[in-house]
Amino acid sequence: MYTHHNNELTIRDAGKRVRLKGFVQRARNLGNLVFVDLRDQEGITQLAFDADNELRMEAGRLKAEYVIEAEGKVRERSSKNKDLPTGDIEIDVDAFRVLSKAAQPPMLIRDETDALEEVRLRHRYLDLRRPRLKRLMKLRHQTVKATRDFLNEEGFMEFETPILTKSTPEGARDYIVPSRLDKHHFYALPQSPQLFKQLLMIGGFERYYQIARCFRDEDLRSDRQPEFTQIDIEMAFIDQEAVIDLTEKLMARIVKETKGVELKRPFPRMTYEEALRDYGTDKPDTRFGMKIVDTGETFAKSGFKVFKTVLEKKGTIRGVNAKSLAAAYSRKDLDGLTKEAERLGAGGLVHMKMEDGEIKSPIAKFLSEEEKDGLTEKMRMEEGDLVLLVADSEKTVQKVLGRLRIIIAKEQDLVSGDDLDFHWVVEWPMFEYDEEEGRYRSLHHPFTRVQDEDRAKLSSDPLAAKAYGYDLVVQGYELGGGSMRIHETKLQGEVFRVLSIDEKTQRERFGFLLDALSYGTPPHGGIALGLERLLMVLGQTENIRDVIAFPKTQSGHCLLTGAPSVVDEEQLRELALKKEKKRDG
RNA sequence: GGUCCUGUGGUGUAGCGGUUAACAUGCCAGUCUGUCACACUGGAGAUCGCGGGUUCGAUUCCCGUCAGGACCGCCA
Questions:
Q1: Maximal C-alpha separation, chain A
Q2: CA of A26, C1' of B74: distance in angstroms
Q3: Whose CA is nearest the C1' atom of nucleotide B12?
Q4: Protein A518 CA to nucleic acid B45 C1', in Å?
Q5: Domain membership flag for residue A456
Q6: pLDDT band for position A516 (50/70/90)?
Q7: Residues A253, A301: one domain?
Q8: Are residues A318 and A354 in the same domain?
Q9: What pTM, to 2 d.p., does this model score?
Q10: What is the pLDDT of residues A127-139, one digit of tens each?
Q11: Any residues with CB less than 8 A from the CB of A253 and at least 6 apart, and which?
């Protein structure tokens, strides 16, 4: 046993006999004097060997990452290290023991001088020894603990729902698991516990939560993993405001306990429509301004052909003002932005700088004085400002300008990771129209409740029907979303009808839910929050792999274990599965 | 499904149509009593991801493939 962790001892412990353990961070052999930095989960303590004896010789032979145990007396250092919490003291060691030797590690176990991520993932257990990963894993634990503490106090019950469950073709691609007992039938891993938590409400539980593992077989990104965790919450006999209020309190509690910061409540809200109008996205980063502005009538009579054509086609001309960034963007930089705009589907990008009191732009010569003045006013252009305009369909303009805002903010460092701009996007539409499939699709999911006053629009004008839906957004991440659910069989049927899901399919896929709804269902609603995304924001990292102990690569591989891997023919036979012969390409 | 970037001693990088493949760090040996990324001296360590092609000659150029990363599509 040990007496202390390696972050604990201070000058007040001088003279104490202690026993420490840990990994050798580093042995510094100065000849007749040897120092060893001993690292454990909590920190580093310096061991000193200065007696002229065998012990010192042995200490000089210690290598990085050996696991040892050492005993001795705490003493004040003659030269202190103010960078270490234990920097005032060292241990005058009189006995130590090597518990385990270590091969030369493939990477430096230190925050700086990092190996590439590929090496770190292959040897994740070594990567996890680094203080940075220690800090992030601790943050994860604290966040989950704060969540459980808070929800338990609020009268919630924690549940577990099945991991082997039924495939639901709507939505993301499922991971499937073959059944041995029922040949050619498959379980699916849950994309979320959505239906189960609703069934718990129907089962008469009023406040559910789960730290729930979810699985989606889709392509990965720097903020997406094939398996990830949601803080999943559902409540009965409440309204939307109750869910929003509870979620804000939960966020406040987590931020307080992990960062020591008080969040201002209530969080700001904007409607889905406002989000798209002002920021060009349904998950705006509101840490910086640069809102999208409609030039309206400014170019109504424009002689500039591009503008004229777009307006004739019922398109729109909108822009953003990158305040005082005219000097920051050279012609070449602007070409880069233009290329990005074109890649996103815009015909081009108009840029203008306000310099020496006048608009400088490649298209300036096509604009009348009236147009220039109008634009200056609309965009609130001042000396040194850079304005970017896109003329196209509303959808394209929003997409392009929304993207350019983010690019510029990143390039120009307009954002701070400390700025927790939690806000709600509310009043989501029930449906969007899928051009490819020629039918309506749920924006949230098919169990979302339509707002009472919009119920008639389900048949008359589905696209105008608003849902009781809400997303929590921070720093441009969709942190989570939720809704009030449908609790009547009849309404659920109406929604399925809009979605063109016929009765046979309804029965096949959701029959159990429809049956359940028919036996008396409390009004209910909830929310699901992406734990990893929250941790990325709190931990100030852009990489989701940093907040997962054993993450997978962009191609879904676990470099540590080698998953996924082939299996024995025998295993396949048992499942009545056959390998498909690889076709030559 | 697509676009782009990367792959060179253990690790991170440099390099170039012909080199003894360079540098840093780590590793090994030695010197050193106040280091803390110790310092100094010396040393070992690389079929340049894999396969094919072009060429008198390929680590270098081309094609394919594999692996990692960023992004688009996708993720109700």
A1: 94
A2: 47
A3: A115
A4: 74
A5: yes
A6: very high
A7: no
A8: yes
A9: 0.95
A10: 999 999 999 999 9
A11: A146, A149, A150
Give the nucleotide with minimal C1' distance to the Cα of A106: B10
The closest nt to A219, taking CA to C1', is B74
Protein residue minimizing CA–C1' distance to B26 = A108
Rounded CA gap, A57 and A108, in Å? Answer: 25
Does the residue A195 lie in any domain?
Answer: yes
- CA–C1' A584–B53 (A): 21
- Predicted confidence (pLDDT) at residue A393 exceeds the cutoff of 70: yes
Pairing outcome for strands A157-158 and A89-100: unpaired
A138 and A256 share one domain = yes
- The CATH number of whichever domain residue A58 belongs to comes to 2.40.50.140
- A188 touches A172 (CB < 8 A): no
What's the CA–C1' distance between A106 and B52, in Å? 32
Give the residues across from A355 on adjacent strands.
A358
For residue A460, the SS3 value is helix
What are the tokens at A168?
């639901």
Smallest Cα–C1' distance to nucleotide B76: which residue has it? A171
Percent of all residues in chain A with a pLDDT value above 70, rounded to a whole number: 99
* Distance from residue A34's CA to nucleotide B34's C1', rounded to whole Å: 10
How far: A104 CA to B26 C1' (Å)?
A: 9
Question: Residue A583 pLDDT more than 80?
Answer: no
Sheet of A469-474: strands edge to edge?
Answer: A157-158, A207-215, A227-236, A524-530, A477-484, A469-474, A423-426, A269-271
Task: Report how many domains make up chain A.
Answer: 3
Give the domain-ending residue among A355, A381, A411: A411
The residue type found at A342 is E
Residue A329 has pLDDT above 50, yes or no: yes
- The domain in which residue A310 lies consists of 288-411
Q: For residue A479, give Cα distances in angstroms to A10, A221, A260, A548, A574.
A: 41, 15, 20, 17, 42
**Are residues A359 and A432 located together in one domain of the fold?**
no
Examine the domain organization and report whether A146 and A256 are in the same domain: yes
Span A403-416, mean pLDDT?
Answer: 90
Q: What is the pLDDT of residue A575?
A: 95
Find the nucleotide nearest A399 (Cα to C1′): B72
Is residue A560 assigned to a domain?
no
My answer on whether A350 and A257 are in the same domain is no
> A96 CA to B42 C1', in Å?
31
A376 token code pair: 């200056």
Give yes or no: residues A66 and A96 share one domain.
yes
B39 C1' closest Cα residue: A30
**Distance from CA(A127) to C1'(B13), angstroms, rounded:** 21
Q: Is residue A250 part of a domain?
A: yes
Identify whether the C-beta of residue A548 lies closer than 8 Å to the C-beta of residue A225: yes
Nucleotide nearest to A217 (CA to C1'): B75
Residue ending a domain, choose from A80, A100, A120: A100
Q: Which CATH number goes with the domain that contains A512? A: 3.30.930.10
| Residue range A353-376, pLDDT digits in tens | 999 999 999 999 999 999 999 999
Check pLDDT > 60 for residue A251: yes
Q: Evaluate if residue A191 carries a pLDDT over 60.
A: yes
Q: Is the ipTM of this complex over 0.85?
A: yes
Give, as ranges, the nucleotides of chain B with any atom within 7 Å of a protein CB.
Answer: 1-2, 10-13, 25-28, 31-39, 65, 67-76
**Tally of residues, chain A:** 585
Residue whose Cα is closest to the C1' of B38: A28
At A113, is the pLDDT very low, low, confident or very high (cuts 50, 70, 90)? low
Question: Which nucleotide has the shortest C1'-to-CA distance from A556?
Answer: B68
Which CATH number do you get for residue A336? 3.30.1360.30
Q: Do A328 and A403 sit in the same domain of this protein?
A: yes
CA of A402 to C1' of B73 (A): 18
